[in-house]
Design brief:
Layout (H helix, E strand, L loop, with lengths): L15 H17 L12 E5 L9 H11 L5 H17 L4 H15 L4 H16 L5 H12 L3 E9 H10 L4 E5 L1 E4 L2 E6 L7 H14 L7 E4 L5 H4 L4 E5 L3 H9 L3 E3 L25 H12 L2
Parallel strand pairs: 1-2, 1-6, 2-3, 6-7, 7-8
Antiparallel strand pairs: 4-5
């Protein structure tokens, strides 16, 4: 298993469990990735955080709503999920205690269920609760990377199965997410490593880049949270999308590009780093949408 590479000593701030989680996520992502549709710079890619970057709110909460509807758990647990989601939407930041509580609840809920069962339910939940919550602007940015011949990956603390469904529905290459242990196709209620959050996201991107032969200096990453600064700092083209206060300040100090879709206010022009062999693909959302539409014409 590729994840065993975490045993090799490396100088970094991430823990061994972060490395294990990242490499397990990268391995899972490569197994479910979609074919590359457009020839381009195979050494460049884009990495998008999910919650509040691509999707309004938290994917884990929406998934929880769908499971509650199907009677996987009781109303009091849904109320706790709802409170955590309300905090996330109002405060605009991820609360580590809330996230840990949500993950532990989710693991206990899915324990003993088959992976295939949750994948089928996940498809239904996406249509019910997630499809209408995708930020059009971020979606257009991702499409611009695809049109430039670059692979596009989601990177999220949400379960890798849920993230993979969302990536496939959006036409993206694939997804890096938290890997829950399963034996013979049944969830055990344990994680492989730890949740894909903070440094673990950077480790997942690092592992995927090594496996795919990517040049991280030519790659881009997008996120709303200061927790993702390790991932954003790993690439040559970091972008703050709907940033929390800490990330906005950090990005401005380093002259990273910003965009805020929550109010329609443009914080700063966002350019898309295109594949070197394809040429520069400049501009923000409008340019990305226009390019996509042109490509659809006969």
């Amino acid at each position: 298993m590729a994840a065993l590479a975490w045993l090799t000593p490396r100088k970094r701030s991430a823990t061994a469990r972060s490395v294990l989680a990242g490499e397990a996520s990268a391995e899972a992502a490569r197994k479910t990735s979609q074919p590359f549709p457009v020839p381009g710079d195979e050494r460049a890619a884009a990495f998008f955080d999910l919650d509040n970057t691509v999707m309004q709110g938290a994917a884990l909460f929406h998934f929880g709503r769908g499971l509650y509807k199907r009677k996987f758990f009781q109303r009091r647990e849904l109320a706790r999920f709802a409170w955590q989601q309300a905090w996330f939407r109002l405060a605009g930041v991820e609360d580590p205690e809330h996230m840990q509580d949500a993950r532990e609840s989710a693991l206990s809920i899915v324990q003993g269920h088959r992976v295939s069962e949750l994948m089928t339910i996940g498809e239904e939940i996406y249509d019910e609760y997630m499809a209408d919550r995708i930020w059009p602007g971020t979606r257009a940015l991702a499409q611009a990377h695809l049109d430039a011949g670059q692979k596009v990956w989601l990177v999220t603390a949400a379960p890798v199965e849920t993230a993979t469904i969302i990536a496939r529905r959006l036409g993206l290459t694939g997804a890096l997410g938290t890997v829950a242990e399963s034996v013979d196709g049944v969830y055990t209620g344990r994680l492989v490593g730890e949740p894909l959050h903070g440094p673990a996201k950077a480790e997942a991107v690092r592992a995927l880049a090594a496996a795919e032969g990517l040049d991280l200096s030519r790659c881009a990453a997008y996120s709303d949270s200061h927790n993702d600064i390790p991932m954003l700092s790993l690439v040559g083209h970091p972008y703050a999308i709907n940033p929390d206060t800490k990330l906005r300040r950090y990005a401005r100090e380093r002259e990273w590009r910003l965009r805020d879709y929550r109010t329609g206010r443009k914080a700063a022009k966002v350019g898309i780093p295109a594949a070197a062999g394809v040429g520069a693909l400049a501009g923000g959302t409008a340019a990305a949408v226009a390019l996509h539409r042109r490509r659809q014409l006969p």
